[in-house]
C-alpha cells in the first residue's frame, strides 16, 4: 500500500504548493453565487419553458390574423389584444379572437379596455365579450389583468362572469373584439 | 391706419374662429363617444339598447323623458353608473348630454338645457343607492303622466 500513500501524499502536496486557502474560498463562493444566479437570468427562463413567450397549448396549432396590422398569434396569451383578458382564449376553442365557437352565444354585456397595437403604436378599444352556453372550454387559459380594477368597480373588472347578460350563464371562453381606436384627449 | 387694420384683423380672426368651431365640436363628439364606449357601453351597449336585464334598461327613445319630469334631471346624474364613474364632472356632463342627444333627442323637452360641469359636480355628490329602484319607479310614473299630456 506504499504506492497508494505516496500517490495521495504527492497529490496533496501538489495542491498545497500550487493553490492558496484563500483562492479555494473565493472559488467556492463564486460557485455558490453562480449556481443560484443562473436560473434567474432571462436566457435560463426561456430555456426551461416556464411560461415562455409564444408557448403553445398542446394540440393547438399557431394562427395568424392574416394582416400585418394585427400582428401575433391569437392562440397565445402574448397576442396584443389580450392585454386585459382573463379566461380561455376562444381562438383555441373553435372560435377566434373576435368570434364565438359554434353553438355558443356572445354575451351582449362585456368589459372594455384599451390595448397598444405594436404594429402602429396606437391604443385600440377592446371589448372582451364572453361566449356562453356550453361547457367551459378549458384550453389556453390566459390572465393578464392589465388595467383591471377591483371587484367594486365591476364594469372594468375581468373576474366578473359577463355571461349574466346572455341566455345561459355558463362561461365557455373569451374574445377580444376591436371597437375602435382610442383618441388622445 | 393702424386702427382700421386692427379691426379688420379681428374680424378675420372671428371668421376663422367661426369656421373652426364646427370642426372643434365634431372632434369633441368623437372624444365623448369614445369615453361612452370605454366607460358605459360595456353594459349599456354601443347603441344604448342595454342588455335586456331590467337593471340595464333600453335608453333609446326614452332616456330623454327623464329630463322632462320633476326630479329626473337629478336622477340622470345621481344614478350610480354616472355619479361614481371614474371621470371628471366636465367629461360626465359632455357624455350625458351626448347620450341624451344621440339616444333620445325626440323625447327631450323643448326647453332642455344641457348639463354643465358645475351642475354635474353639485348633483353627483349624492349617489342613489338603496332607494334607486323606488326613485326610478316614481319617475317612470311621472313620465307616463307627462306622455299623456304631451
Give a written overview of the molecule.
The complex is a heterodimer of chains A (185) and B (150). Chain A is of the alpha+beta class. Chain A has 3 helices and 8 strands; from the N terminus they run H-H-H-E-E-E-E-E-E-E-E. Chain A has a 3-stranded antiparallel beta sheet with strand order 2-5-7, with no helix packed on it. A 3-stranded antiparallel beta sheet of chain A has the order 3-4-8, with no helix packed on it. Chain B has one domain (26-149): Cytochrome Bc1 Complex, Chain D, domain 2. Chain B has 7 helices and no strands. Chain B has helices at 2-39, 41-44, 72-78, 80-83, 89-104, 117-123, 132-149. The chains are: A alpha+beta (185), B mainly alpha (150). Chain A binds chain B through residues 108-114, 125, 127, 153, 155-156, 164-165, 179-180, 182-183, 185, and chain B through 30-31, 34, 37-39, 41-43, 45-46, 51-53, 56, 81, 86.
Could you provide a short overview of the structure?
Chain A has 185 residues and is of the alpha+beta class. Helices cover 22% and strands 17% of the residues of chain A. Chain A starts with a helix and ends with a strand.
Amino acid at each position: 500500500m506504499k504506492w497508494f500513500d505516496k500517490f495521495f501524499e504527492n497529490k496533496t502536496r501538489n495542491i498545497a504548493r500550487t493553490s492558496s486557502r484563500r483562492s479555494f474560498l473565493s472559488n467556492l463562493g463564486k460557485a455558490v453565487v453562480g449556481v443560484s444566479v443562473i436560473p434567474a437570468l432571462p436566457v435560463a427562463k426561456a430555456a426551461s419553458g416556464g411560461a415562455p413567450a409564444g408557448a403553445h397549448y398542446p394540440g393547438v396549432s399557431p394562427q395568424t390574423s392574416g394582416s400585418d396590422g394585427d400582428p401575433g398569434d391569437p392562440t397565445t396569451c402574448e397576442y396584443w389584444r389580450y392585454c386585459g383578458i382573463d379566461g380561455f382564449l376562444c381562438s383555441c376553442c373553435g372560435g377566434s379572437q373576435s368570434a364565438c365557437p359554434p353553438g355558443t352565444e356572445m354575451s351582449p354585456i362585456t368589459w372594455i379596455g384599451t390595448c397598444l397595437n405594436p404594429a402602429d403604436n396606437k391604443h385600440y378599444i377592446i371589448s372582451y365579450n364572453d361566449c356562453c352556453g356550453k361547457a367551459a372550454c378549458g384550453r389556453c387559459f390566459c390572465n393578464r389583468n392589465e388595467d383591471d380594477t377591483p371587484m367594486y368597480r365591476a364594469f372594468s373588472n375581468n373576474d366578473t362572469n359577463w355571461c349574466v347578460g346572455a341566455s345561459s350563464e355558463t362561461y365557455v371562453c373569451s374574445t377580444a373584439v376591436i371597437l375602435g381606436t382610442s383618441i388622445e384627449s | 391706419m393702424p386702427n382700421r387694420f386692427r379691426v379688420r384683423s379681428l374680424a378675420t380672426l372671428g371668421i376663422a374662429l367661426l369656421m373652426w368651431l364646427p370642426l372643434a365640436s365634431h372632434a369633441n363628439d368623437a372624444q365623448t363617444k369614445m369615453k361612452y364606449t370605454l366607460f358605459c357601453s360595456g353594459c349599456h351597449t354601443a347603441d344604448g339598447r342595454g342588455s335586456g336585464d331590467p337593471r340595464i334598461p333600453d335608453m333609446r327613445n326614452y332616456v330623454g323623458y327623464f329630463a322632462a319630469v320633476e326630479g329626473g334631471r337629478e336622477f340622470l346624474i345621481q344614478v350610480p353608473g354616472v355619479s361614481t364613474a371614474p371621470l371628471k364632472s366636465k367629461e360626465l356632463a359632455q357624455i350625458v348630454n351626448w347620450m341624451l342627444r344621440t339616444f333620445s333627442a325626440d323625447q327631450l323637452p323643448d326647453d332642455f338645457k344641457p348639463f354643465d360641469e358645475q351642475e354635474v359636480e353639485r348633483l353627483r355628490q349624492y349617489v342613489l343607492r338603496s332607494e334607486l329602484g323606488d326613485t326610478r319607479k316614481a319617475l317612470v310614473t311621472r313620465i307616463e303622466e307627462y306622455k299623456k299630456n304631451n
